[in-house]
Predict the 3D structure of the following.
Amino acid sequence: MAKQGGLAATRAKQKAAKLLSRKDIHAARAAYQKVCELAPNDANAWLALGEVSGMMRDVQGAEKAYQQALSFNRDLPQAHLNLGRLAARRGQWPVAEEHQRALLDLQPNNLRTYLELGVTLEGQGKQDEAESIYRQALSMDDSRAELHVALGRVLREQGQFAEAKPLIQRALQISPDMALGHLEKAHLLRREKKYEAALEAYQQFGRLAPQERLSFLSNCGGVLAELERTEEALSCYDQLVKEFPQSADAHLARAMQLLVLGRFEEGLREYEWRRASAEWRNGDRGYSTLQPLWQGEPLQGEKMLVYVEQGFGDTLQFCRYLPKLAEMGATVHFHCQPELYGLLSSLAGVAQLETRDFNKVDPSGFDYYVPIMSLPYLLDTNADNIPADTPYLQADSERKSYWQQRLAQGSFKVGVVWAGSGGHLKDKRRSLNLSELAPLSELNNIAWYSLQKGAAEQQLADEDSVLEITNLSAQINDFSDTAAIIANLDLVISVDTSVAHLAGALGVPAWVMLFNGPDWRWQLKREDSPWYSTLRLFRQPPGEEWSTVVESIATALKETVNDA
């Protein structure tokens, strides 16, 4: 009887293979399903069923079949390969890693799997492990251009540009027409501020990979924006939206360019696409599920919850709109970052302030919900009606008095922030090293205070640090402390970070050091800000380093101190 069953399974398998060779996929799958019924412990039959299901784009059926195959034989390389790729496609990185490592145990010389595992590790933010995997693969075969590109990419992502550069050069020597090699070359040239050369490399990438239009147009638009060739950049993003009308990233890129040009009505409307982006879905912590979303309806007698969605600077800039909601008749509840809670208690128009925590929200407790950065759009902001009255935030009087007694008397007091927090996408571009502020040390009668937080604070201990600067960071626990210190300063000098917004919101003079192609809110070619009356902008020319900005600040500061 068992012999007859085995014979039937063999015949069914032969039939299935013949149908597959004829490309009769539907019939072949039915035949392999029959094989699996006749021989349910046959791992290879389940593997074949999975592959045919995959050909029919039945991902769920394919995955189930591969898992069945592995349940009978854990040593099937093809099953691990396919399950790893299916998981990676869905961003299920830990699952992908499990199968890729299992495959390497079975096939330790499979360079393709090293590449795929490296990408999976990068997807999980495990850059060090990805680097190790790529180096291990290159030690086995250094003639593979794709391995040089992969290692170059992960080194670039870690900021190791000098080490990445020869790897990309080597990749293009091995394979001159490798599209990804030209893409990485362009990224490195862009980092070196060789924008024209970077643009040429991106265009070569576009010629070699015409199917990669989204990456091509996005990157070309980005370089043109950094060159401050704004209309050309906008044209790139217009084309991007035309070709990818459902891409949130495409609309957001176009929004940024419209906004930097001061075209607020169009730009703010496009900026609403952020709520369809992966970043929004991954970071909203449940708030975006709240309904109904306010769309500009009358607010008299309505109860509204406004919630923060991005960084500290964004909250400090756009909390100015909350009093307007109260003026429209709303009872405004505001969920903010814990670090801003004490400071924002001074904000007018807020009936109840709480730290951001979705578990505190009663979904039926409000008439409307709105993310804070939708308020400029919903309140019809344009270049002429920005609510720019400052100050709209106040330092705590007791803390302000405390610091007044502890800061130098008789000197011109300047607070400094030279680097971002590290989490910003453009942090490496917006940040300086403290040593680059050396020209400021030549000025007399100035008491310098560091407001810097984060890793860059360690630069104060460097022997190369030439500014005689008092480090206050250990005494800064939240933004209320920072605000109290700033309120006692004559001037704040900061890169584009939250302290610049805080100084502006407090109505304290601040000079902002901007990298070329800056964030949209600073616009272009202007020294003032329509958002903050006390801010002065110092801009880095395209392709240049920070020295030009620092020299301009040194000159302006000398004049200011002499006039004080």
Q: What stands out?
A: The beta strands are 303-307, 331-336, 352-355, 368-371, 412-417, 446-450, 469-471, 491-495, 510-514, 535-539. The first strand starts at residue 303 and ends at 307.
